[in-house]
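Q: What would this complex look like in 3D?
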Amino acid sequence: MLALITRRLMTAIPTLLVIILASFFLMRLAPGGPFDGERPLDPATQAALQQAYGLDRPLWEQAWLYISRLVQGDFGPSLVYRDFTVSELIAQGLPISLTLGGLAILLALLIGVTAGLFAAVRAGKATDKTIMMLATVATALPTFVTGPALALFLGLWLGLLPVSGIGEGGAWLIMPVVALALPVSGAIAKLTRAGLASVLKQDHIRSARARGLSETKIMLKHGLRTAMVPVASYLGPAAAGLLTGAVVVETVFGLPGLGRYFVQGALNRDYPLVLGVVTLYAALIILFNLFADLIYGWLDPRMRDG
Amino acid sequence: MGDIVLKTHLALFLVLVTVALALVLPFLLPWSYDQIDWNAVRAPAFSGSHLFGTDEIGRDRLARLAAGTRITLMVAIAAALVSLIVGIAWGATAGWIGGRVDEAMMRIVDGLYALPFMFIVILLMVVFGRSILLVFVGIGLVEWLTMARVVRGQVMALKQRPFILAAEAAGTPSIAIMLRHILPNIAGVALAYLMLTVPQVVMVESFLSFLGLGVQEPLTSLGILVKEGADDMDMTPLGLALPGGLLVIILVCLTIEGERLRDRFS
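A: Here is my prediction, written as structure tokens for the whole assembly.
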């Protein structure tokens, strides 16, 4: 297991480097700069600002400087929110995005695995087909439709939940998390159902039945564990999807998370902010994939050396 | 419930009706999608010549819905085709050559799969000025990964089949085998995954347009209409319900039909 972790971390570094460099040069290809406001600054001030942030140096030198600072944990200053460093903005936004994403994936697992289990137990019957149809519908629900729709029904019309911003307690989390979790839960339900269907045909299940174990025990203890393997391998892409979904949800519900900073930063040419968020997201996703692989190995010991 | 939907081809029917309406309606309606009716700003549904009313600056909702659906589907089909071409080229090359090349190429796919790709697409949109052409090239370049995996698997299986071995033994050049024997045999599966890529692309396009990074005014798409509706939903819920509902119906129906095709071929 330690070997797997080391090997993954070794490949993670070049991957991250490629992503950082690609985003760095992409940003710089874009027309416009961070100091083009409503009123154009006079050329002298513009030049002074460029010099102060090192934007007048050759691009390769800037890239090198950025990476050498990044290694020391310094994401640089934000060019648009000028009183803040990127690290400070990330420290504000990351907890919100992580809370949303983390709760959403837990909720999606809870709904998805339960639904998949029910469908597999009733395989071929009406319950199974209804659940699977609902799962297909759920996977096709975009967050930018469910988010506003939830806000309209539960927030504006029924007045049950706050529509915008971070309120007291946890009520503000409910709608964003549900909107994020729905499509993922549909996918998880399908994977669980498919996984269980193939596992239940295998020999160890037959022998468990022959040993006279109760059907519930067979399902939960022998079936579900192996059936979770495809679900575990879906968690990496799911995490990437949730982080993207969070961009919309944060916009819809007015939450100051990282996704909003990213979109604002990209529009305002806030180079260090955008690079910081991309780097952080890429690192998070790589970590999450590693984590998913470890779960994978725990669920199915045959995979451990692979 | 599930059974009835599948047996009656309800999903396919709804998709075809939507496409037909999106194509025909703009010619039948008295209003164009960007035309302002100064006498009927925020008109309710069923008022005069506006079946679904007008939006906050007096544009006919039905006309905008048809135009938006048209653009969304156009972008989706174009982007899905880009993903089809890139995916087949990548997957077939990896599967045909095999060995280390295959391993390296598939590692790249695995690596790309898990990346925050949407963020790179957002950067692309910002960089290249949000032209509609770029919207589908950008999306297509992101959505080819599954296609590459599927095609590679198919090609690897085909490679062992006697008719391919025979063609090789007869000295047919690789390119000719690929075009004449491999491609026709993977067409069915590729088509099924193309069907499944379309809703994915619709989702990405609407997502970008919703954030203001995709299709730009005066053109419109379902994503833009959802955004406009969401901004104005406390005044007229219809503005959100119509494009949002239509988008969900299109996504669900395309997914159902795509999955049906995929299950038939695998």
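A: To summarize the key features: Chain A touches chain B through 50 residues (CB under 8 Å). Residues 93-305 of chain A form a domain with the MetI-like fold fold (CATH 1.10.3720.10).
Q: Very helpful, thank you.
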